[in-house]
Design a protein that fits this description.
The protein is of the alpha/beta class. 27% of the residues lie in helices and 28% in strands. The strands form 4 sheets. The chain has a 7-stranded parallel sheet, sandwiched between helices. A 3-stranded antiparallel sheet has the order 10-11-12, with no helix packed on it. The longest helix has 18 residues, at 37-54. It is globular.
């Protein structure tokens, strides 16, 4: 079974948030970047588990410049067989999907896995767009995935219950919490990652469908107001005049 896993290069969740170019772009200076946790913990690890159980290969694909290669090497250290880097700076989720689909369309992948979203944009857009561009079925937010006899069986949470979905291969799946458990790369994996194949391919021309007009930080938190327990009227007044529903 040939499996393709989408790997995103994202800022660490503890990184500071600042903007540049008149607040139209994220300021990455001094920021530590990591593998998108949803891609790493759920999509990649489940792909590796399926490979280990049934044989085959796991290839990762990342859209971005050479700066993303340390992130890609971590995915290789966890256990991916090889990696692809599409050498262009992604402009939006649609651009990423176009680049992934352009590479994957004639490679015969049985399964394309992605995390449910990236932690920087939280868009959940790339997986379904890749499926559309490849004309493949798509299962979103899967929490469990098994493959047998050329067919995938997935589970996903719905309100108050679990939905079971069956679909023939090939298909695209976005992976959510519960799909797999995080793996920590060991020293052997880290050393092996240095020599695993990392193919760099040129990007594909893509129409820009969206642009970032402006980013704004939320207002700083205000000081807590302490209301005496016996002054319920004041609390009610403040709830009417100052409290905001988020």
């Amino acid at each position: 079974m040939k499996i393709l896993v989408l790997i995103s290069h994202v800022p660490d969740t503890t990184a500071r948030i600042a903007f540049t170019n008149d607040n139209t772009a994220y300021d990455a200076n001094g920021v530590q970047f990591i593998v998108n946790p949803y891609d790493e913990w759920y999509a990649l690890v489940r792909g590796l588990e399926l490979k280990e159980a049934q044989g085959g290969t796991v290839t990762t694909i990342t859209v971005g410049g050479a700066v993303t290669e340390p992130t890609i090497r971590k995915a290789l250290a966890i256990g991916a067989d090889d990696a692809v880097r599409v050498d262009c700076e992604p402009k939006d989720g649609h651009d990423v999907a176009v680049q992934v689909a352009a590479y994957a369309k004639d490679k015969g992948f049985d399964l394309v896995l992605a995390g449910k979203e990236t932690i920087d944009h939280n868009g959940s857009q790339v997986g379904p767009m890749v499926a559309e561009l490849l004309d493949l079925p798509f299962i979103s937010l899967a929490t469990k995935l098994d493959v047998s006899g050329g067919k995938a069986t997935a589970e996903r949470d719905v309100r108050g219950d679990v939905e079971v979905v069956e679909c023939p291969l090939p298909l695209v799946v976005s992976c959510a919490k519960g799909m797999a458990e995080q793996r920590i790369p060991n020293m052997r994996g880290i050393m092996a990652a240095r020599t695993k194949p990392l193919q760099v391919v040129p990007g594909t021309a893509c129409e820009t469908l969206s642009t970032s007009v402006k980013f704004e930080l939320p207002p700083p938190k205000q000081a807590v107001k302490m209301i005496p327990a016996e002054d319920a009227g004041k609390l009610i007044e403040l709830l009417h005049t100052e409290a905001k529903v988020i």
